[in-house]
Amino acid sequence: MIDQSGDSNTVEEILDPELQICDAHHHLWDFKGSRYLVEELSRDIIGHRVTKTVFVECQSKYYESGPEQLRSVGETAFVDQITAHCQDNSNTPHIAAGIVAYADLRLGTAVDEVLEHHSQASARFRGIRFAAAWDASEQVHNAHTNPTPNLLADNTFREGFSCLGKRGLTFDTWLYFHQLPELTELARAYPEIPIILNHVGGPIGVGPYKDRRDEIFHVWQKYICDLSTLKNVFIKLGGLTMTAAGFGWNKRLKPASSIELAESMGPYYHHCIQTFGPTRCMFESNFPVDSTGASYYVLWNAFKRISRDYSMEERAALLHGTATRIYRLGVSTEV
């Protein structure tokens, strides 16, 4: 039994502890008043068989001087350095086996220089995330990149985006559900570039979207169906314990159990799996962001509950295989 939160109501046994996990999306940061680095993540993953993880940019440890467009390379260099020791021991998780960095694709073709510097900073650099989440409401939090409406259709942005294909890099993005048609058009225009949609496409449940869950779900469903027809698009199953999703897990006195999480998140994740297929879906913790709604071990218990509806081969893809393949993390020989 594990209780990492200090609340007896959240004590659960680790489900299916033998299953391999590749956490397809987490952050490492060191901000004033907020630290989440290898030590904190290592403590969180105790109990589950996490063998690999993918670090995703979060604007920490940028270079403080030098050309503005190259400062994000500092984050890649920092993560590479603090996780180097994690790559050598087969008995410990390979934290940040893949690194997804930030580069401002609004630079157009000039972004290629930034990509080259990221490549030099780490051999584990795999791609770029540009968070494009934007909503007109002041009650909805927009992405840290300060995106503008219809950004994915912008010609200069697309010039920068095309540079990823020339280098064999992936593209991650976080956006909101009403922006999904924009991503569909981008994916259609660049079929050679692997696109990884974060957080199941951002259904919103706060601000003007509060108390409209069924309505939003049906719109989101259709957009996900349309997007799934493009074979270069993959999707991360997670992010629904963020406050923007509107489930209110962070406001509860009694933390949610994995059963409750699975029941609430299940319809979203099952729809993604049924449309994209397990080999194009991957579970993500989105920690520590999603820690406001659930502990790490309870969250992965919920993912395991949801994946029990599928075959062992399909579960292996959802929990481990898709992420390791798409991010080129190597194939484990473990049984």
Q: What are the salient characteristics of this protein?
A:
eight-stranded parallel β-sheet, 335 residues, single chain, alpha/beta
Reconstruct the topology from this structure.
Blueprint: E1 20-26, E2 29-31, E3 34-36, H1 38-44, E4 49-56, H2 73-83, E5 94-101, H3 111-121, E6 125-129, H4 155-166, E7 170-173, H5 180-189, E8 195-197, H6 213-228, E9 233-237, H7 258-276, E10 281-283, H8 296-307, H9 312-326
Parallel strand pairs: 1-4, 4-5, 5-6, 6-7, 7-8, 8-9, 9-10
Antiparallel strand pairs: 2-3
In CATH, the topology is named TIM Barrel
- Poorly predicted segments: 3-8, 331-335
**Alpha carbon gyration radius:** 19 Å
Overall 3D form: globular
Q: Write out the CATH superfamily name.
A: Metal-dependent hydrolases
- The CATH first-level class comes to Alpha Beta
Question: Could you say what the CATH architecture is?
Answer: Alpha-Beta Barrel
Number of strands: 10
Adjacency order of strands in the biggest sheet? 1-4-5-6-7-8-9-10
In helices, the fraction of residues equals 25-40%
Tally of distinct domains: 1
Cα separation of the termini: 24 Å
Strand content: 5-15%
Separate helix tally: 9
Give the helix/strand class: alpha/beta
The description of the largest β-sheet is: 8 strands, parallel
Written as H for each helix and E for each strand, in order along the chain, the element string is EEEHEHEHEHEHEHEHEHH
Average pLDDT rating: 94
Write a structural description.
The protein is α/β, with parallel strands linked by helices and 335 residues long. It has a single domain, classed as TIM Barrel (Alpha-Beta Barrel), CATH 3.20.20. It is built from nine helices and ten strands. The protein has helices spanning 38-44, 73-83, 111-121, 155-166, 180-189, 213-228, 258-276, 296-307, 312-326; strands at 20-26, 29-31, 34-36, 49-56, 94-101, 125-129, 170-173, 195-197, 233-237, 281-283. It has an eight-stranded parallel beta sheet. Strand 5 (94-101), helix 3 (111-121) and strand 6 form a beta-alpha-beta unit. Helix 6 runs parallel beside helix 7. Residues 3-8 and 331-335 have low confidence and may be disordered.
